[in-house]
Q: What sequence folds into this?
């Protein structure tokens, strides 16, 4: 769920959930961005864009999976995003190139690949002062370049990314914390399904969490990509692709630990 007004978000949480649970839920909020097409009146945010060539430092190998090159889906300019993210961005990785396995090969060849592992995606940082446009090698797909404006928003987690220890709830009335969120905020039109977003929280309306937890806390959400007919990509029936990274790896700038999770109806 996303909000343009953080104060209004906190007020809504208290009104719907009560003072204790409302304060706890609001404390889970994260800053993020809606990625909207840039226009003459709304310029792109730094070098942020969807599709187009990669922006890699000279000498960087194009990522592959089982010998098949991955496809570039997006570039985020974290230097341009840093003022809004603040301490939610513990390192300054510069540019982040997001790749995923989506080759232009016959379906039979694709089915022969073992796509169950995390290597089907890659997030590669690059110094913007040294990065150069790098075209995708065949048979990786090349999507049209779309510069994007990163609109600043405050996001609350979806009910499925909330665990019972996160907020207080009445166990006689609700089977868990997700039940409280579903009941109290059901009519709040704040989900991000069908949109491209960065950081913040993902929309996980498919009934399972995306930000898996470990001892260091919930994973950090990096990028949410919806199906986009204009760009020419899709992720199954009404599907969405999420890039996440363990909290500790994000804190140390180890983007080799990033993973991609697909959800569809």
A:
């Amino acid at each position: 769920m996303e909000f343009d007004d953080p104060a209004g978000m906190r007020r809504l949480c208290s009104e719907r959930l009560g003072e204790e649970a409302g304060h706890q839920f609001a404390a889970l909020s994260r800053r993020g961005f809606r990625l909207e097409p840039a226009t003459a009146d709304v310029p792109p945010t730094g070098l942020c864009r969807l599709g187009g060539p990669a922006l890699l430092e000279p000498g960087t190998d194009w990522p592959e999976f089982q010998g098949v090159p991955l496809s570039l889906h997006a570039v985020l300019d974290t230097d341009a995003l840093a003022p809004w993210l603040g301490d939610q961005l513990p390192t300054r990785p510069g540019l982040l190139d997001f790749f995923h396995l989506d080759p232009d090969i016959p379906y039979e060849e694709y089915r022969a690949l073992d796509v169950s592992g995390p290597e089907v995606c890659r997030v590669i940082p690059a110094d913007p002062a040294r990065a150069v446009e790098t075209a995708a090698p065949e048979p990786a797909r090349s999507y049209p370049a779309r510069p994007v404006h990163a609109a600043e928003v405050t996001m609350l987690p979806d009910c499925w990314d909330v665990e019972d220890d996160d907020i207080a709830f009445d166990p006689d009335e609700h089977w868990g914390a997700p039940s409280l969120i579903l009941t109290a905020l059901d009519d709040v039109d704040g989900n991000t399904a069908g949109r491209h977003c960065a950081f913040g929280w993902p929309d996980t309306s498919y009934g399972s969490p995306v930000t898996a937890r470990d001892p260091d806390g919930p994973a950090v959400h990096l990028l949410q990509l919806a199906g986009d007919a204009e760009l020419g990509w899709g992720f199954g029936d009404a599907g969405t692709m999420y890039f996440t990274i363990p909290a500790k790896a994000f804190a140390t700038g180890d983007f080799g630990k990033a993973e991609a999770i697909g959800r569809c109806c």
User: Anything to note?
Assistant: Helices lie at 6-17, 19-27, 78-85, 107-111, 177-184, 247-252. DSSP finds six helices and 17 strands in the chain.
